[in-house]
Amino acid sequence: MSQAAQFRSLLRSGKMVVAPGAVDGITGRAIDRAGFSAAYMTGAGTSATLGYPDYGLLTLTEMVANATRIVNSISIPLISDADTGYGNELNVFRTVQEFERAGVAAIHIEDQVFPKRCGHLDNKEVTSREDYIAKIRAAAAARRSKDFCIIARTDSRAVIGFEEAVTRANLALANGADVVFLEAPQSLEEIALVPQRVKGPCLLNVVRGGKTPDLPLADAERMGYAIAILPGLLLGGIISVCDQLLDEVKQTGRYPVPKVETSPAKTFARFGAAEWDARRTAFREPLEPTAAPAGAAAGAPAKVAAK
């Protein structure tokens, strides 16, 4: 079963899909090992791995390259940020093809003006309804498999208001989107209203310190959300732990004692070392000895034909 088909099955299960954010193969594998049913490739995290803020500075090929690495590191479906689709509906068409070819299960495409900004920053701009819906139609038409999931994200709440965001969400569903991602509702009341007012499955973006109030995941599921993504969970943890460890080295002049003792062998085991070790000898069966030519003396060198 493809990752896209697995993801469709999860959506039909009636249980909210919780997808922590992965930035690379290490974090993707950690999410998989922890038992989550899906992972989310964060655009902000991908930007950070290349040394940039989440300002729409990465290209389609850079995003797909990272998604490919994560897909190859995990056994669970990957949802990926696809920003604005990197242009108009023609670019969106190619964007869908590239992510689907990479093995990604779902992508979300938003209605911000390119280059976009993180959905929890101020001073965003959004495109017209017409341009947005044209992209959603193109995305739906471009996929080769109906299992591939198109998530329509709208950032219009911060720019035009909650009612316009709901209108755009329902228009997107009517024009081929499978799931709606209404970005950055600004109160608990708005969070609860989204699944009530939107006529299809909804995704909640859980961002600590962002525009949306914090709430338990169980409450989000009771409200009717189908998916919850936690984009900054591991990225924020990585940054804080790195700062802490580096400061400790500077202060003590010693390698800090890890919270969990490990070793190179244990680390490599997380990434399939046992399977690769088995391959070292799997292709080394003894070769059958070749028969000597008729009439040749044992041990005699073979004659070389004269040129």
Can you walk me through this structure?
It is a single chain. The chain is an alpha/beta fold and 307 residues long. Helix content is 43%, strand content 11%. An eight-stranded parallel barrel has the order 1-2-3-4-5-6-7-8, surrounded by ten helices. Helix 8 (188-197) links the parallel strand 6 and strand 7 (202-205). The longest helix has 20 residues, at 233-252. The radius of gyration is 25 Å and the shape is globular. It starts with a helix and ends in a 25-residue tail after the last helix. The model has no long low-confidence stretch (mean pLDDT 92).
Counted by DSSP, the helix tally is 12
Q: Indicate the overall shape.
A: globular
Termini separation comes to 58 Å
Q: How much helical structure, as a percent, in the residues?
A: 40-55%
Q: How does the major sheet shape up?
A: 8 strands, parallel, barrel
Low-confidence stretches: none
How many whole angstroms does the radius of gyration measure?
25 Å
Give the strand order, joined by hyphens, for the main sheet: 1-2-3-4-5-6-7-8
Kindly report the average pLDDT value.
92
Strand content: 5-15%
Structural class: alpha/beta
Compute the number of strand runs.
8
Question: What sequence of helices (H) and strands (E) makes up the elements?
Answer: HEHEHHEHEHEHEHEHEHHH
